[in-house]
Amino acid sequence: MKTMKAARLLGPENIKLEELLRPKVGSKEVLCKVVRAGICGTDYAIYTGEFSFVKNGGIKFPMTMGHEWAGTVAEVGSEVKYFQTGDRVVGDTCVSCGDCVKCLLGDYENCEKVRAVGTINTWDGAFAEYIVMPERHLFHLPEKVGFDAGAFAELAATALYAVKCANVQIGDTVLIQGSGALGLLAAKLSKLSGASKVFITGRKKTKLDLALNFGADIAINTTEESVAETVLRNNGGKKVDRIVETSGSIQLFKESIDIIRAGGSISTVAFYEKVIDGLEIDKFVFGNINLRGVGGSHGMFQPVLELMNSGMLDINPLISGRYDFKDINQAFADMKTKNEIRIKWLLNF
Prior knowledge:
The strands form 4 sheets. Strands 3, 5, 6, 9, 10, 17 and 18 form a 7-stranded mixed β-sheet that branches. The chain contains 12 helices and 18 strands. It has helices at 41-48, 52-55, 101-104, 147-150, 153-165, 181-192, 205-212, 227-233, 250-259, 282-286, 301-310, 328-337; strands spanning 3-11, 14-21, 29-39, 63-64, 68-76, 88-91, 94-95, 115-116, 130-134, 138-140, 173-177, 197-202, 218-221, 240-245, 260-268, 290-293, 319-324, 344-348. The chain has 2 domains: 3-152 and 315-348, CATH 3.90.180.10; 165-293, 3-Layer(aba) Sandwich (Rossmann fold), CATH 3.40.50.720. The mean pLDDT is 95. It is of the alpha/beta class. The two termini are 21 Å apart.
């Protein structure tokens, strides 16, 4: 039997590289050899045990994390039609049942039996030498898109879906709350979607400086200035048309209600993990404000990959660290100690 190395999370802050059997391939499944994988904030929250789904049992140990990855096809099932050995691929973040009405309509993320790759109700993820995925959840990497960019495809697709859910239109003014990798991508994709002016908030100067070279027009350090005052001062006294909330800060979410114009739209793609008290819901009602939750990347992989292939979306500035797979424990340790500079760590296989 063939084996592989996998980084198994046995419990909070306890990752062990183990030798496991390679997953078996079903008739409609594809075995992929992982070449590159990204470590995100959700992975770190699972690792520390602070993630709400760890606490409520939605994530059980041991498990294999990793939902941002790119690789090559190693083996295909007997009924696989569109992939063959050697193809370069990226994978979705969910695995659906494939048989329910939602799945038959292609609405995989809303399948009642959906499992998340490497996170909630876990389908074993890509912090391993191999991952198996149903064919319907795989995408070919275009010719000019490398494995580094491929490992960003899921994150960029989620950011694009958040921008779409905020209904960003040509000429709109947009505020991105949060300057992590997701916020930076949302800023860039808002600009590519036609936004006339993009604001972004954050607390780290290094990340805000990067944002100004990655789609944002005005960066707001929330430790030094008022978001509302800065927006009004730099927007002709007007509130913004759209807001994409990526920070997970309840305070910034509450402030967003006072910064969005009447009839504007807010999409939130963050995990808050708290009950929000003191939320003035009437402001949504009387302001005709649209609020949209964003859980996933529904249909956005292909557009993002095409943007990458055309050269319009270059993710290289967001890579702030590289680690060999064998050094995954050090990578997670550095998530905390190097937070000032961390945008995205990549694992090399």
